[in-house]
Design brief:
With 105 residues, the protein is mostly helical. The chain has three helices and no strands.
């Protein structure tokens, strides 16, 4: 689908709120403050089983989850696919600069 520049800008600006208005992401029973209690009440009123919460017995490392999803291992060397990758050193983080001092040139 190809759009002209004018049509693209028109469609894009449909999502921009006027000055002084703030978008509300969730309200009602999905509002942040009492979401858990209200969802439990909704489930009770609808006759649904109550949520048992997440059943994460063992937290998996991101490398294991990546391998399950893609079939490609982050534990193996990307070149020879034979050796096992080991952490040799963890580099310290650089201090964050404020947004005002970032040079985007």
């Amino acid at each position: 689908m190809t759009l002209s520049a004018d049509e693209f800008i028109r469609r894009f600006l449909l999502h921009v709120l006027p000055d002084g208005l703030q978008r509300i992401r969730y309200y009602g029973f999905l509002g942040n403050r009492y979401r858990k209690q209200k969802l439990e009440l909704c489930r009770h009123l609808l006759g649904m089983p109550t949520s048992a919460g997440p059943t994460h017995s063992i937290e998996k490392d991101y490398r294991d989850r990546y391998e399950e999803l893609t079939g490609d291992s982050l534990h193996r060397c990307p070149q020879c696919k034979q050796g096992r990758m080991l952490v040799a050193e963890i580099l310290p983080r650089l201090p964050c600069k404020s947004a005002h001092s970032i040079d985007s040139s």
